[in-house]
Amino acid sequence: MISNERIVVVMPAYNAEKTLEQTVAEIPALVDEIILVDDLSKDDTVSLARKLGLHTIQHQRNRGYGGNQKTCYREALRRGADVVVMVHPDYQYSPKLIPALAHCITSGLYDVALGSRILGGRALAGGMPLYKYIANRMLTATENILIGDKLSEYHTGYRAFSRRVLETLPLNENDDDFVFDNQMLVQAVYFGFRIAEITCPTLYFEEASSIAFGRSVRYGFGVLQTALQCRLARMGVLKPAFLSPAGKKLTDEDPESR
Predict the structure, then answer these.
(1) How many domains, in total, are found in the chain?
(2) Which domain CATH number covers 172?
(3) Could you give the CA distance from residue 52 to residue 37 in angstroms, rounded to a whole number?
(4) What is the pLDDT of residues 155-195, one digit of tens each?
(5) CA 87, CA 26: separation in Å to the nearest integer?
(6) Coil, strand, or helix at residue 78?
(7) Cβ distance 114 to 198 under 8 Å?
(8) Are 160 and 101 in contact (CB under 8 A)?
(9) Is the pTM of this model over 0.85?
């Protein structure tokens, strides 16, 4: 706990057996609970997670990266989380920064905290492919213009949220694939939540998860569509469901439970 607030780490997992134990070993003791949601892995991720004492949920079908996160956040809220930190179990982001991200929230100064690979200028040194770095910078610049914010990147998978953010955003309206991440940050900006960024080193190696080139291209177009929808919503021209206060939230019924 920090300042009597319950800190919960969530891990959206898929074939994370090789890196899970190393990731969990570096999670600080101040974390009250670790929740792992497995998206029907083909390896022994689930059995290892249970062996490590993690609260483990296994999807009965692959629901995608975004669908996995919806389960992660919904379960964290159900289990009383005040601050939720998403950590990828592939060891691409260092768990040692969890306290810094969580403190941004518990301080009352911010509602969302992001671990930025760009701020420290070491993304390429950490192994980020050059084409991904260039795409990251170009997409982020375009989004800042369309959305009207000044984030260093919208594409990090290392992020922390207050309970209020997760209960307010209409996350059930978001995509079930990788665009979910981007939609969530655009929602946070659109709904007026305060966002902090801290420098975060990252590692790219064989076992770390990565999006294939084709999916990266689809993600890029999805990002641009999301930013454009936000701009049109600000202009009063469009009101997409994922930016509507009346949109479906995590606290509503899980569509998969019906």
Answers:
(1) 1
(2) 3.90.550.10
(3) 14
(4) 999 999 999 999 999 999 999 999 999 999 999 999 999 99
(5) 11
(6) helix
(7) yes
(8) yes
(9) yes
